[in-house]
Design goal:
mainly beta, 9% helix, single chain, globular, 61% strand, AOC barrel-like, 181 residues
């Protein structure tokens, strides 16, 4: 009986380590953005190639999504602003150990401020699982970026620098040594 109780207790601790409680994620990201060769729902897409994380667990994040002009909220209205709502899209976060976290775009926006020469872009993702330690992951994350044109004519830039952060809740990540655990 003692061995059975000990085994059950060890199993409970093992499962708790493998399927950690939901964890809050807040990490800085930076990288580049450009037009993509991908068409989503018949529309040209944008592509973001980002990196971030901490010393223990750096990651890369690639996002592809389409956007279309939409009615701006009051936070993005004005003669120097242009507003886009995000449409279809997805992302893949690759951890240093090779594990992939897959993301499905559920919403977002771009508020382009021509006078300030930058855009504030938001992408909201539902986590759809992944591979390795992210195999059963779930939750949602929001990517908030400041995008600045660095190449191309002023009225049609083609390459951008990106800085921002990735925040949200990630659960059911198996044991590892990084901020996404």
């Amino acid at each position: 009986m003692k061995h059975f109780a000990t085994a059950a207790l060890m199993l409970n601790f093992g499962v708790a380590c493998i399927y950690a409680e939901p964890g809050s994620v807040s990490m800085a990201v930076s990288g580049t953005a450009a037009n993509s060769t991908v068409l989503l729902t018949g529309k040209p897409a944008s592509e973001y190639n980002l990196a971030g994380g901490g010393i223990q667990d750096p990651f890369t994040l690639r996002v592809v999504n389409s956007s279309a002009p939409s009615t701006p909220p009051t936070t993005c209205s004005g003669p120097n602003n242009f507003y886009l709502a995000s449409g279809a899209g997805a992302g893949v976060l690759r951890s240093q150990d090779g594990s992939l976290l897959t993301l499905n775009l559920t919403g977002g926006s771009d508020c382009i401020d021509f006078l300030a020469n930058h855009a504030v872009c938001i992408r909201i993702f539902q986590i759809t699982g992944g591979t390795g330690r992210f195999k059963n992951a779930s939750g949602s994350v929001t990517l908030t970026m400041t995008v600045v044109p660095i190449l191309g004519p002023p009225n049609n830039p083609v390459f951008f620098s990106v800085t921002g952060d990735l925040k949200g809740i990630v659960s059911k990540v198996s044991g590892g040594q990084g901020p996404l655990d």
